[in-house]
Amino acid sequence: MGIVRVILIAFVGLITVGVLREVKPSLAAVAGIVTGIVIIYSLLDEFTLIIDSFKELTSLAQIDNALVKTIVKIIGIGYLTEFSAGIAEDYGSASIAKKVEFGGKICIAVLALPVITGLVNTIVSLVK
Q: Given a cut of 90, is residue 15 above it in pLDDT?
């Protein structure tokens, strides 16, 4: 189960960060980032499963592949934004974290515009 692996990696990372904070504080932040990267790497199979499931659903529902790609990109931006903002907060820079979150929201809005436009066009064509 993926979550057990994530929790174990997180605990090892937490212990490492705690020990390094006492010995070499500058390495503690690096250990925290490395822990996050290892957690993400350990979930690559799950990411692949999600993408494959989206592909299967796309073909079953006969949905435009570009639409699904856009939705997957939006989800990815959301996760990457949260991860990056968390790193900034771990470094003690909440103001940069907020700006990363704002930047992620802007990127998501830009990607969502064609989806929203298509949805509105579909609704308008059905109403006519």
A: yes
| DSSP-derived secondary structure for 58-106 | HHHHT--HHHHHHHHHHHHHHHHHHHHHHHHHHTT-HHHHHHHHHHHHH
Query: Does residue 110 lie in a domain region?
Result: yes
Domain count, the chain: 1
pTM for the structure as a whole: 0.73
Task: Write out the two tokens for 1.
Answer: 């189960």
Is residue 99 in a domain? Answer: yes
| Contacts with 17 (C-beta within 8 Å, 6 or more apart), sequence order | 28, 31, 32, 35
Residue 86's domain comprises 62-128
pLDDT tens column, 48-91 = 888 888 888 888 878 777 888 888 899 999 999 998 998 888 88
Query: Which two structure tokens, joined as six digits, stand for 46?
Result: 């799950």
Contact at 8 Å (CB) between 80 and 94? no
Query: Is residue 48 in some structural domain?
Result: no
